[in-house]
Amino acid sequence: MPSPRLDPRRLDPRRLDLRAAAAAGGVVYTVTVLAWMLSNGVSFDGGDPISTAFAVGYSVVGLWLMAAVPLYLLGRASLVSPLLATGWLLGNTAYQWAYGTHLHPLSSHLTVWPLLFAVVLAAGAGEALIRLGTDRVVGVGGLRRFWGAG
Question: N or C, where is the chain less crowded by C-beta within 10 Å?
Answer without folding.
Answer: N
